Amino acid sequence: MTAAVPAGAVAAAAASDAIVIRHLSKTFDGVRALDAVSLEVRAGEVHGLLGQNGSGKSTLIKVLSGFHEPDPGAEIEIGGRPVTLPLAPGEFRRLGLAFVHQHLGLIPSLTVLDNLNVLRFATEAHWCIGWRSERRRARDLFASYGLRLDPGAPVSSLSPVERAQLAIVRAADEIVSAPGGGVLVLDEPTPFLPAREVGALFALIRRVVARGAAVVFVSHDVDEVMEITDRATVLRDGRVVGTVTTSETTPDDLVRLIVGRNVERFSIDRSHGAEDRLPRVRVTGLATGQVGPLDFVLREGEIVGVTGLVGSGYEAVPYALFGAGAAAAGQLVIDGDAFDLARLDPRRAIEAGIGLIPADRLAAGAVGEVNVAHNVPLPVLGTRYPAWRLPLRAMSAEAERLAREYDVRPPDPNRPLATLSGGNQQKVVLAKWLQSQPRLVLLDEPTQGVDVGARQQLFAIVADVAARGAAILCTSSDHEQLSQICDRVLVMSAGRIAFELSGDAITKEGIAEHCYRAAATVRAGTERPA
Predict the structure, then answer these.
(1) What is the DSSP string of 172-224?
(2) Interatomic CA distance for residues 5 and 527, integer angstroms
(3) How many helices and strands (H and E) does the chain possess?
(4) Which helix (H) or strand (E) holds 150?
(5) CB neighbours (10 Å) of residue 345?
(6) Edge to edge, what strands does the sheet with 81-82 contain?
(7) Beta strand 17-28 with 31-42: parallel, antiparallel or unpaired?
(8) Stated pTM of the model
(9) Which tens digits make up the pLDDT trace of 344-381?
(10) Of 27, 134, 435, 518, which is most buried, counting CB atoms within 10 Å of its CB?
(11) Separation of alpha carbons 59 and 527, rounded Å
(12) What are phi and psi of 85, to 5 degrees?
């Protein structure tokens, strides 16, 4: 991320408190999820809220929304006014609080206008809706935040960042008349956004606080917190362990507060190079939609990153190689075994020794409502277990063994996958695919929504799989991540490979520079920059 002036740096110094929390605790079955949390968020500032999964962030937000009742003794003031606890469900709106959660709460089948007004239409009496005036109001509202969203467009047609922008504007509109400007809580708004689109979301957040509102920005991404926030509070084990002024701290300081110790940055050893390893995977003529033709080689034990700017096409590559995205043409050769990519489907890909870990693990990589024991065996059911009878006890024992091997916490095979933290969900998905020792592993945004401590564990798992000989392809918009784990990085633009980086060129800054250089060269009319 590029450095930026914090959103409310000038206003925050003299601002009044938008929300004050004192001595807030919450106990579940004798376990303290929150322990005497005290926190002040100023009007006109962006305040970061960080902590590992299980630190208490979600519980705190659910208390503020009225979903959880706090333990006796807590005090909350909003806009300088004491609040009676516990909050009734939905009461937060009257108090000037609004929430945007990770999955946004939008209805894809409805229009932008419908989603913008769904709450207002449901709670206010409307004998007749003046659709023309409503569309005009929506356009004026979007324009006031510097957005150009079409009120008549279905939400399903919007890009990920446009959906996030719609959800934020809708929430900001709810608190516009609240005393003190109101408080907007953004709970992990960026994990499913490409890195290049995060800046557009931050511009919108800055416009929100410029109007006097306070924004609580909940995130795992330390770099994002450093860029967008004025101050940040860190929770660990349900307690506040520190509140810092962002401009006066460092990313390493924040990481130490989050995990309680120094976290060693994972990095692979490139001193020996990968060019002398035997080619294991060869892709020729890969074409799908606006992508291709692509030709590249993955060597034995090599981790190759693929990236580019939004629209460059890099996101389509792993799905085409797994048969989950329609490839128009191309050939994949693994250890001499050739596959026609236009005919490949996921079943044949699994049989060929290919594993795919998709970006959205719960929607496309696992079944969140099902327990760990039933998720882990899915890729090997047809080869490891008899079709006429599933040995549930043996499956559960194997799932527990893998959970312990991959440090899934808790290592409970009967736990529904969706109840685990993001990092532990990803460890389960990795265990699920890596148990069969695939020859080719396809990773798409492997640490999306994963906290800073678990990221390093996932990197170590991936490196260990490569050390055992698998070829690994990792597509990601996270250039820091690619710089840590990749032997080579392919930079795409306009559906083609524009640059190949290796050695000392693989840095966060170097990858970003080549992404922009590739796009600029394509605009100038040259497909393959030197």
Answers:
(1) HHHTTTSGGG-EEEEES-STTS-HHHHHHHHHHHHHHHHTT-EEEEE-S-HHH
(2) 36
(3) 18, 20
(4) none
(5) 10
(6) 31-42, 17-28, 75-78, 81-82
(7) antiparallel
(8) 0.67
(9) 999 999 999 999 999 888 888 888 889 999 999 888 88
(10) 518
(11) 51
(12) -110, 150
